[in-house]
Amino acid sequence: MLIHSNVCLALLLLLAILLFHATCLNTNQAHPIIANGREALEIIIGGGGGSYGSPLASPPSYYPFESKRIEIVYPVIQKFKQKITSDPYNITNTWVGPDICNNYKGFFCDTLLGDYNSVALAGVTFNGFNFDGPDLSLAGFIDELPDIIVFHANSNNFKGPFPSNISKIKYLYELDLSNNKYTCEFPHEILGSQLTFLDLRYNTFSGAVPPQVFTLDVDVLFINNNNFMQKLPDNLGSTPALYVTLANNRFTGPIPTSIGRAGKTLIEIILLNNGLSGCLPCEIGLLEKATVFDASRNYLTGRIPLSFTCLGMIEILDLADNQLYGHVPELVCELPNLVTLSLSYNYFTGIGPKCLELVEKNVLHLRMNCIPGLPDQRTRAQCRAFFSTAKGCPRSNWIPCSSGGVIRRNSLESSLDTNGISAVSVKLKSRAYAALNRRL
Ligand SMILES: *[C@@H]1O[C@H](CO)[C@@H](O)[C@H](O)[C@H]1NC(C)=O
Ligand SMILES: *[C@@H]1O[C@H](CO)[C@@H](O)[C@H](O)[C@H]1NC(C)=O
Fold it and tell me: Per the record, a Pfam family (predicted)?
């Protein structure tokens, strides 16, 4: 009986794997990684450029298109239009005739300098159009729009394969496919691209994120709210991105120590609600540019490293709902730009006077910890149960910045007074937190 059910299980598993392969794998296996390097953009956004190049000879008057580059994309758009079976805002009604640049909703043109010196289709902006169709995919569309710089399609129903040559689109810098219907693996096809903005949030991508994602030359990397499931790649800190949101996936393992390598660039990172575990690496203290660090709702443990004293720009530090313990370092409570230090739902056992001041100002949140004398703490039994199991995080007194928080604070003549700045206002201007919204 037992053997029988194991065989069944194995068969089921096999079937599941076969199904996954049948539905998820597309035909191109090669994932060449092309050397990065942001080419000088030869396109002027917003017109201008009158002094560049020589003017084109004006086309014959009967020529219906604005340029040869527009003529090239006309049949591509018409072909794509056939794939749209649901268009609730009647957008495609405007996609008639040759005047793409002035009449077609969702497309914009600009002057392409360099190779052609003419008007070209520079962008696709389908945000919120909610297009649908059984074959609504990028393949056969984006790869045949050779001059586009941006492709923004938040809240549609794109799915299916990525074109194998998407990274050959010469000027494609921004790709936003957030809140679409993608399933299966991370699209390897984009790994050779020169994208500066990559937004794949709110799909159901699953499996692993290839480490090459963290060597893409992006400023923005939003892959939150998918089903990515893997140990965070060791090279996380290789990313040059300023804004990173990995929230609401199933990443596991520790925060890689490589995170410190992003110290000169990273401004906001959100790791919220994953399955991260292990100790907080001291290298987080190297994030001297960071204004937002949110690793709440994970299984992180250990003490707050003293290196956090070096987070001189930090405004929101959210470590709530983990398994952190120890004293909250006084120097962290003296960080000059703190607006919110959220440590609720952990196992901290003590705070000093500076931290107490922040509790009173509602900057430091410490609900549900093990701190005697503070309201809304865990029960003694809960605290005792937690501390009865061995915790293996080393203590580190390493402080990588020359001046700790106190000195820095005095020299900036900043105060702990958060007049006019609230967590809400910080979150409103935060690009990484904005990515937690489904629609843009
Ligand atoms: C789109 O067109 C259909 C039929 O022409 C019309 O009934 C509907 O109200 C239009 N929808 C919008 C959002 O304009
Ligand atoms: C990608 O491949 C398609 C199909 O072979 C081709 O039509 C298109 O021009 C290619 N696009 C780029 C950017 O190389």
Answer: LRR_1
pLDDT for res 114: 72
pLDDT > 90 in the chain, percent: 74
**pLDDT at res. 406:** 44
d(CA 305, CA 312): 15
Q: Using 50, 70 and 90 to split pLDDT, how confident is the model at 12?
A: very low
pLDDT score for 24: 58
Whether the CB-CB separation of 418 and 361 falls below 8 Å is answered with yes
Q: Which helix (H) or strand (E) holds 101?
A: helix 100-103
What are the structure tokens assigned to 21, written together?
């392969």
pTM of the prediction? 0.85
- Ligand 2, atom nearest to 166 Cα: 13
Amino acid identity of residue 271, one-letter, is: L
Give the pLDDT score at 397.
81
Atom 6 (ligand 1): residue with closest C-alpha?
Answer: 90
> What amino acid occupies position 318?
D
Pocket residues: Cβ below 6 A from ligand 2: 143-144, 146, 163, 165, 168-169
At residue 95, φ and ψ (nearest 5 deg) are: -90, 60
Q: Which of 90, 91, 95, 130 to mutate to test the pocket of ligand 1 (most atoms within 8 A of CB)?
A: 90
SS (H, E, C) 369-390: CCCCCCCCCCCHHHHHHHHCCC
Q: Which ligand is nearest the CA of 105, by number?
A: 1
CA of residue 140 to ligand 1 center, whole Å: 28
Q: Does residue 89's CB lie within 6 angstroms of at least one atom of ligand 1? A: yes
CA dist 119 and 219 (Å) reads 28
**Furthest-apart CA pair in the chain: how many Å?**
86
What is the C-alpha to C-alpha distance for residues 313 and 335, in angstroms, rounded to an integer?
Answer: 8
Q: Minimal CA–CA distance to 300: which of 282, 283, 317, 325?
A: 325
The pLDDT tens digits for 338-365 are 999 999 999 999 999 999 999 999 999 9
Is any ligand 1 atom within 6 A of the Cβ of residue 90? yes
Does position 151 have pLDDT exceeding 50, yes or no? yes
pLDDT at site 408 = 46
CB 125 within 8 A of CB 106: yes
**Taken in order 354, 360, 361, 364, is the CA torsion positive or negative?**
positive
Which of ligand 2's atoms lies nearest the C-alpha of 143?
11
pLDDT band for position 82 (cuts 50, 70, 90): very high
Which ligand lies nearest to the CA atom of residue 93 in the structure?
A: 1
Catalogue all structural domains in the chain, each as residue range(s) with its CATH number.
Answer: 42-48+63-181 (3.80.10.10), 200-440 (3.80.10.10)
